[in-house]
Amino acid sequence: MADTYAVLICDNVPNAVVLTHSGPHAIAVVQVLRRWTGLGLWGSRLLLDRLPAAILDDVAQETAEAAVRELLVVARADLAGIRGRLPWGTSG
């Protein structure tokens, strides 16, 4: 039986963005969801009814940070953040 050795090097670990609460501006959250997920109006609205939900999965950190930033600034939504933490170090 031959031994097999492998090394996996991954510089860009996939990230997920989880929306936990839509906040007071549900319409703004739907608009942001449509931009980032490619869902239509109805699909984005249904996603809000099923929170918490992963809105982006297996994305680069830059993409995840941009989505989190837009949801926090524009829509004032609550997020679980990227890999459980927000990009600037405060827990989500």
What would you say about this model in short?
This protein has three helices and three strands. The chain has 92 residues and is α+β, with helices and mostly antiparallel strands.
Describe this structure as you would to a colleague.
This protein has 3 helices and 3 strands, in the order E-H-H-E-H-E. With 92 residues, it is an alpha+beta fold. It has a 3-stranded antiparallel beta sheet, covered by helices on one side. The longest helix has 15 residues. Helix 1 packs across helix 2 and helix 1 runs antiparallel to helix 3. The C terminus is likely disordered. The chain is globular.
| Count of helical stretches | 3
- What ranges have pLDDT less than 50 throughout 5 or more consecutive residues? 81-92
- Structural class label: alpha+beta
Strand % is 15-25%
C-alpha Rg (nearest Å): 16 Å
Shape designation: globular
Record the SSE blueprint:
Elements: E1 15-21, H1 26-37, H2 41-49, E2 53-59, H3 61-75, E3 78-82
Antiparallel strand pairs: 1-2, 1-3
Helix pairs in contact: 1-2, 1-3
Give structural attributes:
single chain; 92 residues; alpha+beta; 3-stranded antiparallel β-sheet; 3 strands; globular; disordered C terminus
